[in-house]
Specification:
By secondary structure, this protein is an all-alpha fold. 54% of the residues lie in helices and 0% in strands.
């Protein structure tokens, strides 16, 4: 019985590629998170209303 492609062990190249993809995803999420926090910090330093203080109504509860 020949092994199917899923039963073959992953090569170091495949593992490196998988790790690279995971690191790239985490980097993108981290950059977005930091960017949003910096934007919020700048707005609050200028004295602008941010978050709940802005008076913008949130989504309505439809239950």
């Amino acid at each position: 019985m020949e092994p199917t492609p899923r039963e073959t062990p992953s090569t170091p190249r495949n593992r490196r590629g998988l790790i690279l993809v995971i690191v790239a995803i985490f980097a993108i999420v981290g950059i977005i998170f930091i960017g949003m926090n910096l934007s919020h910090l700048r707005e609050s330093e200028r004295g602008e209303a941010v978050g709940n203080e802005s008076g913008v109504p949130g989504p309505e509860n439809t239950r």
